[in-house]
Amino acid sequence: MRVVCFSVLCMILTKIIGADDRSPIASDAIGCQTLDFVSEKLNRGLTALVSFSVSGTTELRHQIEQTTGKFTGSRDRIPEHRLIFKAENVGNSSVIAVKTHEIAQRLGSTDYNRAVIFVQNAERAIKDHLLRKQKLRIELIGSPIFDDYRSLLIDDTVFNVMKEYERFYESWAWYFKGEKHIVCEDVLLQNPKETLQRLVLFLSGVALSDDVYACVKERYMNETTDPIIGQEWQEVLKGVNGSYDRAKQRLEFYTQVKQSTNKS
Ligand SMILES: *[C@@H]1O[C@H](CO)[C@@H](O)[C@H](O)[C@H]1NC(C)=O
Ligand SMILES: *[C@@H]1O[C@H](CO)[C@@H](O)[C@H](O)[C@H]1NC(C)=O
Ligand SMILES: *[C@@H]1O[C@H](CO)[C@@H](O)[C@H](O)[C@H]1NC(C)=O
To answer: How far is the CA of 88 from the centre of ligand 1 (A)?
Structure first.
């Protein structure tokens, strides 16, 4: 009796939550959800999806969309993303999360109530940032006039971006006063199911079902490819891993401080 009751309750809950919108594809075992906007009734406030670089976030966005059944948005308006994410141009609480690479202080009159902070693998995120934001500098350093100073210039450039990476996460740890949920990239890779379960609970308050997870696993995992950069850069970049641990520690520290302040 209890089981029946439980499943009826489940059905009612799914109806209310509107997550029964599944369109089975390929096999019945895989229940991919049809995406929708967040209804006003279920709105938990404007949520930011925070990351330093674009590396790995496309995949995470897909995972969030499929596990919650809701669109993610952005305020960056990257044209290519409009082809991938249907709600790319939406930056309000009708999407489950709004992607941002802004440093927390620069948000100004910030209207985010909550944030999912994606702590990326430092080596890959810094490499990605270098390739996107400092392409000209990389080319210049590669030119023959800098032959004598190349390793010095590479060290200096990587060091600066590494500091930028640390400042970025520090800013979210310290300046952002809303509710935070931290997702560490290595934990997500090692333990995707549990990490996504916790993330979905934070985002929508709904439990992650096995068939939805099966869909995510089949379609939206292991897409990340390493950006390509010269060997000399590669060697220096191996030294940036400490930043990842520092970023993680700072975020965890401030989140705990906040939780204990709330309790007292
Ligand atoms: C969110 O933004 C979209 C697109 O700009 C708009 O159509 C929609 O009405 C907005 N929703 C809310 C709740 O503000
Ligand atoms: C996905 O990546 C993980 C970690 O890099 C690896 O262990 C796993 O075999 C990969 N899975 C697939 C399907 O490629
Ligand atoms: C850097 O950290 C990542 C994730 O924790 C790990 O997979 C990688 O092997 C580390 N690289 C080095 C050079 O230590």
So the answer is: 12
Options 2.60.40, 1.10.3230, 1.10.10, 3.40.50; CATH for 23-263 is: 3.40.50
pLDDT of amino acid 44: 87
pTM exceeds 0.85, yes or no: no
Among the listed residues 73, 63, 51, the one whose alpha carbon sits nearest the alpha carbon of residue 182: 51
Q: Map out the domains of the chain as residue ranges.
A: 23-263
Ligand 3 neighbours by CB, cut-off 6 Å: 121, 123, 186, 238, 241, 244
90 lines ligand 1 (CB under 6 A): yes
Residue from 87, 67, 19 nearest 216 by CA: 67
Q: 7 in ligand 1 pocket by Cβ < 6 Å? A: no
